[in-house]
Specification:
single chain; OB fold (Dihydrolipoamide Acetyltransferase, E2P); 4 helices; 34% strand; 2 domains
């Protein structure tokens, strides 16, 4: 009888722990840039230049909160995003959650400086066509962005 009781208690204990882990994972909020301080601060042109010349930079900041300062090229209310100019055919695309964008969209004006923090998740580069008709384009993407107050 004791052996059977130990087995039943072991199974119940494992079930309780497993249920606790599942509930924690299912109900926790995703990490946002608003929740933490950035691990690094970049000027928009500096970020693109570093990503373009050193592939280890992307690995160091991947899925981490960073801040970027730059001139607002476009405010896209439909996509809840802004685009920061980062030099010739280079951009930082900053995507916001809809609520965060509604709260801060009036802070962004095209042609004015902005400081945004967000989770870095992608860098892409297209090569020029070789004839000079289509220049290469470089984009860095940030998600769950928010205003960074330390410009």
């Amino acid at each position: 009888m004791k052996k059977r009781t130990k087995i039943i208690l072991g199974i119940l204990g494992t079930g309780v722990i497993t249920a606790g882990i599942i509930i924690y994972v299912a109900t926790r909020k995703p990490a946002t840039s608003q929740d933490s301080e950035p691990v690094a601060i970049f000027e928009s042109t500096q970020l693109i230049q570093q990503l373009d010349t050193d592939s280890s930079v992307s690995k160091k900041i991947m899925e981490k909160n960073i801040a970027v300062n730059g001139l607002v090229k476009e405010v896209n209310a439909a996509d809840h995003s802004i685009i920061l100019d980062a030099g010739e055919s280079s951009y930082i695309i900053c995507s916001f959650d809809s609520t965060a964008f509604e709260n801060c969209k009036t802070s962004f004006n095209e042609g004015q400086k902005a400081s945004v923090k967000g989770i870095f998740y992608n860098y892409s580069k297209t090569e020029d066509d070789g004839m000079g008709l289509m220049p290469s384009e470089k984009n860095a993407n940030l998600k769950t962005c928010y205003i960074h107050s330390n410009q």
